[in-house]
Automatic annotation (TrEMBL):
NCBIfam families: efflux_EmrB
Species of the source: Streptomyces millisiae
Compartments it resides in: Cell membrane
Membrane topology (UniProt): Multi-pass membrane protein
Regions that span the bilayer: 21-43, 55-75, 87-105, 117-137, 149-172, 178-196, 208-227, 239-257, 278-301, 313-331, 343-361, 367-389, 415-436, 456-475
InterPro entries in the record: EmrB-like, MFS, MFS_dom, MFS_trans_sf
Annotated segments matching region Disordered: 480-502
Protein name: MFS transporter
Residues covered by the Major facilitator superfamily (MFS) profile domain: 21-480
Record has Transmembrane helix as a keyword: yes
Swiss-Prot/TrEMBL keywords: Antibiotic resistance, Cell membrane, Membrane, Transmembrane, Transmembrane helix, Transport
Length: 502
């Protein structure tokens, strides 16, 4: 009788169904990433239908961001404790139910509640998905291919969300931007139950660090809310400042607690490794620039150029194509042959070149002459750099820490996104206001808006260059083979494999 998957994993044999499992992990990841932008396109329609005030509209986005960002580390550790497959399935089912609630919303409270629930289950699902890749794919070449697919989805999913959100809103109804998650979740959950298995050795049987959970969750909520509020109320507003101070105090206490407890929520070894820490930081900086860009280009195409939501979505497809090619055909093929920073630095600089082109936006910029080449460069650069960054972020961690290490990838993305939207939008608004005052026009004048966009894009260009510098200075892993924690067995290995020299 041939060995069963669980027996194979216990014996150190790679799961024969791991590539099929990747399909369902990818579907789930696509659903989570799509949700970050798909609802944005539908927001004006939902606001009108449910009679949501302009002041409260932000809570459709904020409710999700606070729950998701605040609970990511908790969700990652729960995945380590429960098992990633179980956390993955529970996250999918919960996300589907929350999406059904959002689609059926009859008032704003119901909609806001559904978005918060989506964030809760997303915080469980996202780290479980990434950590499943970490424990299922341990061979260097196979891991590169798997993370190439994951990186492409992580990078391109936001742009695909704009296209899908525009199509659903224009041709069906805003409610379908919620309902569309249900088939994604059902297919992924059924596939996970039937196909996905994980080695028992990867389970973490330690007690849950409750003080760490409270401090990390409240600290991250305060941080994300501070940036979200700054976008609308200003950086010097009292509640905004209070949130930032509270976040600093809570997260400092969190680090202190984690350095002293026996079974920490986030073992500091996960982030103090210079390569993983450098990958988290470089990824976060790259996301700051990219999230702001999506916002400005969407407004530029729809408000300044008069594109429909669907046409706007199609306009982003070259960036999606570039990300897929960069992640699967460049990053995944080269990551086992060259050092990670030799992919990340050129990738981030290529993306910054695309951003530099976009600083030349004008009222009548040619799509084919300016936007198209800029988006291709951005896509290729981000895809090439995201893939090794995500792989490096979970390389060498103990199997029992895979969930929380994966959660840190999502934390860097979530916090980066919050900073990017708040900081770059503030810069754009200030530049637009100054231009309007100098030229005697209203801030909604297209020329004033373009001035604001290009000012913020200059900053985004600088941030991408800074991300490349961080990758070049901090990351010194030689790459190639899969790194292992020193003195520990790798998944499926009989003897310890030393960590790569730094």
């Amino acid at each position: 009788m041939p060995p069963q998957p669980a027996d194979s994993l216990a014996a150190g044999i790679p799961d024969p169904k791991r590539w099929t499992a990747l399909i369902f992990i990818a579907i789930a990841q696509l659903m989570v990433v799509l949700d970050g932008t798909i609802v944005n396109i539908a927001l004006p329609s939902a606001q009108q239908d449910l009679e949501i005030s302009q002041a409260n509209t932000q809570w459709v986005i904020t409710a999700y961001a606070l729950a998701f960002g605040g609970l990511l580390l908790f969700g990652g550790r729960i995945a380590d404790l429960w098992g990633r497959q179980r956390a993955f399935v529970v996250g999918l089912i919960g996300f589907a139910l929350a999406s059904a609630l959002g689609g059926a919303a009859t008032n704003q409270a119901m909609l806001f509640g559904s978005r918060a629930l989506q964030g809760v289950f997303g915080a469980l699902l996202a780290p479980a998905a990434l950590s499943l890749l970490t424990v299922l794919f341990t061979d260097a070449k196979e891991r590169a291919k798997a993370f190439g697919v994951y990186g492409a989805i992580a990078g391109a999913g936001a742009a695909v969300g704009l296209l899908l959100g525009g199509t659903l809103t224009e041709y069906l109804d805003w409610r379908w931007t919620f309902y569309v998650n249900i088939p994604f979740a059902v297919v992924a959950a059924v596939g996970a139950v039937l196909v996905i298995r994980e080695p028992e050795s990867a389970r973490n049987h330690s007690r849950l660090d409750v003080p760490g959970v409270i401090l990390a969750s409240t600290g991250l909520v305060a941080l994300v809310y501070g940036f979200t509020r700054a976008e609308h109320e200003g950086w010097g507003e009292s509640v905004t400042v209070t949130m930032f101070v509270a976040a600093a105090v809570l997260l400092a206490l969190f680090v202190l607690v984690e350095s002293r407890v026996k079974a920490p929520l986030l073992p500091l070894r996960v982030i103090t490794d210079r390569n993983r820490g450098g990958a988290y930081l470089a990824l976060g900086l790259a996301i700051i620039g990219m999230f702001g860009l999506f916002l400005f280009l969407t407004y530029y195409l729809q408000v300044v150029r008069g594109y429909s939501p669907v046409r706007t979505g199609f306009a982003f497809l070259p960036m999606v194509f570039g990300m897929v090619v960069g992640s699967t055909q460049i990053g995944a093929r080269l990551v086992t042959r060259v050092a990670p920073r030799n992919l990340m630095v050129p990738g981030l600089l290529t993306a910054s070149l695309g951003m530099l082109l976009l600083t030349q936006l004008s009222l009548d910029s040619s799509y084919a002459g300016l936007l198209l080449p800029a988006m291709v460069l951005l896509g290729l650069g981000m895809g090439t750099s995201f893939m090794p960054a995500m792989s490096l972020s979970t390389t060498g961690v103990r199997p029992t820490d895979a969930g929380v290490a994966s959660a840190m990838v999502n934390v860097s993305q979530q916090v980066g996104g919050a900073i990017g939207i708040a900081a770059l939008n503030t810069i754009a608004t200030s530049a637009t206001t100054s231009y309007a005052e100098e030229h005697g026009v209203l801030p909604i004048d297209p020329a004033a808006m373009v001035e604001g966009f290009t000012s913020a894009i200059w900053w985004a260009f600088g941030i991408l260059v800074a991300a490349a510098a961080v990758a070049g200075l901090l990351i010194n892993s030689r790459g190639g083979a899969q790194a292992r924690p020193e003195g520990e067995k790798g998944l499926g290995e009989a003897e310890p494999v030393p960590v790569l020299a730094h």
